[in-house]
Write a structure and sequence with these properties.
alpha/beta, single chain, Alpha-Beta Plaits, 297 residues, TIM Barrel
């Protein structure tokens, strides 16, 4: 069983208990306009470009087998509509200005990579977290990795938006030791507008996790002009408190560093003028969510 990944983060401390190895799987059913990992949204590789690293040698122009790169005053200009993301140009770039994000691994290869951190797993109660993208977008691979990790005694966690069919959730529901779930927008029309999908399947799956008694942490991304209204946070807080009393909620605050990723991949981005929240603003958002009577960290 193979899967597509775009990164492995070692010594991760925010993706579950203890020190962890977090694997980022490619592919996601949502298209959130604020996505902090745009390189993980599509399956397959992504071709990135770092203009400040480019030496304008022109090697990429001559090596590209599809004639989709030219040089202009800003460096390499890539015709993204014709680019097949084959990576030939990146392999031949002497400055490393062109790079490919995404690779294919077997479940065993991923476990072997993560096992290099086993001493930290054992000493801190850590383990392996599957993130993305969204691991439920590659359910068979996710299931095999989780089973192999459990076989080695590692704690396992899955970070997901929970947009998946009932069959997919049924196949995975018993495997992780911890589910980490994003709930983004309460109003379904707004959810469709800003993520490209309805939230109804997400909420049904969320309730199924609770009914099954699965260990669950809920995260709410706080994004300027998208999810940060008092109405949205109060509604989500009340829903979580009703469905899962005594649960823990972790706000995930907007990070402007994602902006550079969109530029590297020539992807459209609508939050270029957004600023990070101050400490006072972050505390106010926590207080709003906490009015529902839930624990906010």
């Amino acid at each position: 069983m193979t899967g597509e990944l775009f990164g492995i983060k070692r010594f991760a401390v925010h993706d579950g208990p203890g020190i962890r190895c977090t694997a980022f799987l490619k592919g996601c059913p949502l298209r959130c306009i604020w996505c902090h990992n745009p390189e993980g949204v599509r399956k397959g590789t992504e071709l990135g470009y770092l203009p400040l690293q480019c030496i304008r040698c022109g090697d990429c122009v001559t090596q590209c087998p599809h004639d989709v790169i030219r040089l202009d005053c800003n460096g390499a200009a890539i015709n993204r509509t014709r680019c097949t993301r084959c990576g030939v140009c990146a392999d031949g770039c002497p400055a490393g200005a062109l790079f490919v994000k995404g690779r294919t691994l077997t479940a065993a290869e991923l476990i072997e990579e993560c096992s290099k951190e086993e001493v930290f797993f054992q000493s801190t109660g850590g383990g392996i977290t599957l993130s993305g993208g969204d691991p439920l977008f590659q359910p068979e691979f996710t299931a095999e990795v989780l089973r192999m990790a459990k076989g080695k005694g590692y704690h396992t966690a899955v970070e997901t938006c929970l947009y998946a069919t009932k069959d997919v959730l049924d196949a995975l529901i018993e495997l992780p030791d911890l589910w980490i779930v994003d709930l983004k927008i309460w109003d379904d029309k707004e959810h469709q507008k800003l993520t490209g999908q309805t939230n109804q399947q997400i909420l049904r799956n969320y309730e199924r996790l609770i009914d099954a008694g699965k260990p669950l942490m809920t995260r709410i991304p706080i994004i300027p002009g998208c999810t940060d209204s008092k109405e949205n946070l109060v509604s989500l807080g009340q829903y979580i408190a009703k469905q899962n009393p005594g649960s823990v909620v972790e706000p995930m605050f907007y990070n402007p560093l994602a902006e550079s990723k969109y530029k590297n991949y020539d992807m459209p981005y609508s939050l270029f003028d957004a600023l990070p929240y101050t400490a006072a603003q972050q505390q106010r958002f926590r207080a709003i969510i906490a009015t529902a009577g839930i624990n906010v960290i």
